[in-house]
Amino acid sequence: MRAIAVLVFVAIAGARLGLSWLNLHHLKREGHLVPHALEREVDVAKLRKISAYTAERARFGLVRGAASSLMTGAFVFGGGLALYDAWVAKLTSSFVASGVAFVAGLLLLGALFEIPFQLYGDFRIEQRHGFNRQTPALWWSDWLKSTGLSLLLSGALTAGALLLVHAASSSWWIWVSALVSAVSLLLTFISPYVIEPLFYKLEPLEVEGLSSGIRAMTEKAGVHVGRVLKMDASRRSSHSNAYFTGLGRVKRVVLFDTLLAHMKEAEILAVLAHELGHWKKHHVLFRMLVMQVVLVASAYLAFRLVPSAALPELIGAGSASFLARVVTLMLAGSTLLFPMTPLLSAWSRHDERQADRFAVALHGHAHDLADALAKLGTENLSNLHPHPLYAAFYYSHPPLVERIGALRSHAV
User: Fold this and answer.
1) Which residues contact 67 (CB under 8 A, 6 or more apart)?
2) DSSP labels for 232-298?
3) What is this structure's pTM?
4) Annotated catalytic, 196?
5) Which domain covers residue 106, as residue numbers?
6) CA 404 to CA 412: how far, in whole Å?
7) Both 189 and 211 in a single domain?
8) Exposure string (b/e) for 73-88, b if CB count within 10 Å is 16 or more?
9) Closest Cα to residue 182, out of 163, 200, 196, 161?
10) 370, 229 contact by CB (below 8 A)
């Protein structure tokens, strides 16, 4: 059983790395060609910068992915998980306390493992290509806050879930599903007010004409905006973005200050019209509903499979705690569901194309959205030549060149 599990894990890990290598090789072969859809925005010098950045990120991703797969495989199948599980069991006999310690320890180990990769990515790659604006002090402050917040929230959720497992041993999957749903919904509401301000400064947008233009456009779409805010994203990176937050009728619009610095008003309105498209086409609501179904189904499967004697055998252990079994099951699920990745990505790309069409209809000018995406893509040095198979597997948005080409052909 363990040998089969190792073979499947290695095969899927190899497939992931193979796709990344294929994408990098395709970039090396095609990266010197300026796409027809971006001939106005991209010259030879700009293309050279884009290709250098995307190639370096791709090589780094290969190394990071290989290291992560090796570490995970060695830990899970090499006896590390079983030893860790036995060590945690010696700390306390409490079902809840040992479970919280188990989860907190794994999260902390994962966060520590990622530190050198994150530091290299931010202070070598991002800085070399002109994106990183963080100081080491700010980086470590963010790391401590995000790690502490993750440990706090995960610990509280784990404690609540294990209390429900202990109290309702024959139906815990229902109550745990309800708890996770409730916490997720709560975090969606409070994150803009409690979590985001821990990392960013948000202040009312004071760009003459733009705020009123945003409100007019959102009201035209039937979405009421409570506040239009500017985020000081430039303290950390020169990458640009914008998004809506909130549930129900009242939304908040958040614009990165880097976006405001590089885009015209009409282009910003076009980007926000695209985001409005996701709300008006119910993409967000439908995804939430689907995720709830997946959550309940996953909890039920866990309820049925966690007691199985086969789970410890998968990692070569004679016995395993409740949470060690859950972790093993989660790893098995994520590995076996890898072939579903392109289907989920295709669904996302369908929604993005639909939101683009909505934006054109609402805003009225396809070229504004095309120009905005061209600026976002070229200024962020996005890959202009992804391998079709890699894009099919992983791209949640249509490739940039394809997307801009479709918009500009619509504008003609």
Assistant:
1) 117
2) -GGGTBS---EEEE-STTEEEEEEEHHHHHH--HHHHHHHHHHHHHHHHTTHHHHHHHHHHHHHHHH
3) 0.89
4) no
5) 2-193+286-343
6) 13
7) no
8) bebbbeebbbebbeeb
9) 161
10) no
Q: Which of 203, 206, 267, 275 is catalytic?
A: 275
Q: What does the pLDDT read at residue 72? A: 95
One domain for residues 91 and 212 = no
CA separation for the pair 262, 255 (Å, rounded): 12
Rounded Cα gap, residues 213 and 269, in angstroms: 8
User: Do residues 138 and 180 both lie within one domain?
Assistant: yes
Is residue 170 domain-shared with residue 210, that is, in the same domain?
no
3-state DSSP of 115-151? HHHHHHHHHHHHHHCCCECCCHHHHHHHHHHHHHHHH
Same domain, 236 and 115: no
Please report whether residue 220 resides in a domain.
Answer: yes
Number of helical (H) and strand (E) elements in the chain, helices listed first:
17, 4
Specify the 3-state DSSP secondary structure of 385.
Answer: coil
Per residue in 75-106, pLDDT tens? 999 999 999 999 999 999 999 999 999 999 99
